[in-house]
Amino acid sequence: MRALAAELTVAYSSLAERVADIRPPAERRIEVLVCVQGPTAGLQVPEGVDRVVPVPGRGVARSRNAAIENSRRRYLLFCDDDVEIRTDGVLAAVDHLRRTGAALALGRAVDPEGRLRKRYRSDRPTRLTLTNSAKAATYEMLVDVAQVRQTGLRFDERFGAGVETYLGDEYLFIAELLRAGLRGYAVPYVFGVHPPTSSGSRWGGADLHARAVVLNHVFGPWAAPARAAFALRHRRSIGGREQLVRFATDRTTLDEALRRRGHARAVDPGEQRPPTQPPA
């Protein structure tokens, strides 16, 4: 199983001031990237990081796209800077992708106490669909980079942490992957340890609006029944009738003209490079 490490890239998305706290996996055959937003001059890079990718602009989706562009291995695990990798689980998922030819393995995470962060329907690999993949977190996503690049898939940079619509970049990516004819599976392997609170666990008014926008983009003309089904399933979390109605009738979408993808180039940690500025 350890031989599979040579086929794996782990790509952390981080802000410059948080890079020093990253804990790369101990397995040195794994390629480790850190995709950084913010000034990189004087950056404190932890031991075990192979390359740093300065990422222009804002939004975690830009960092995910930079990871796709800069990975040198066949398989890529997206990671956040506060996640501790469970290497055995990730490599088991690499083996799953190799055996099945699937493009995506969606793993699991535990909290610092070792408890699963979500409830899962099965302890066997389960084919992903639009109706069972909405809860995906990016640090649970392992992709076959070759298939992703071949189909031109990228994260929609209008969504995700760091931009106004701060949820749903993972779900949109999976939806596009499935519509491109690629296969993905939820697998019963733990990929890492994550703090108990995340953006996906909030249910305020702005959070509900962001969720509605995501569903509108995923389901298009069929978004109304999708919003209604989501509201019914999560009615206790959403709250009172007024919030339920507001969510179910929210038809907001984002301007397609604003959809764009950033570009970034990896550098070795010791290489000097001027700070990167956002594009005009």
Automatic annotation (TrEMBL):
Q: Where is the composition biased (Basic and acidic residues)?
A: 258-271
> What CDD domains does this protein map onto?
Glyco_tranf_GTA_type
Give GO MF terms, alphabetically: transferase activity
Locate the Glycosyltransferase 2-like domain: which residues? Answer: 52-131
Q: What is this protein called?
A: Glycosyl transferase family 2
| InterPro entries reported in the protein's UniProt record | Glyco_trans_2-like, Nucleotide-diphossugar_trans
Q: Which Gene3D superfamilies match?
A: Spore Coat Polysaccharide Biosynthesis Protein SpsA, Chain A (3.90.550.10)
Q: Which Pfam families does the UniProt record give?
A: Glycos_transf_2 (PF00535)
- Organism field: Ornithinimicrobium cerasi
According to the record, the residues making up region (Disordered) are 258-280
The entry's keywords: Transferase
The record's section on SUPFAM superfamilies has:
Nucleotide-diphospho-sugar transferases
Is Transport set as a keyword in this record? Answer: no
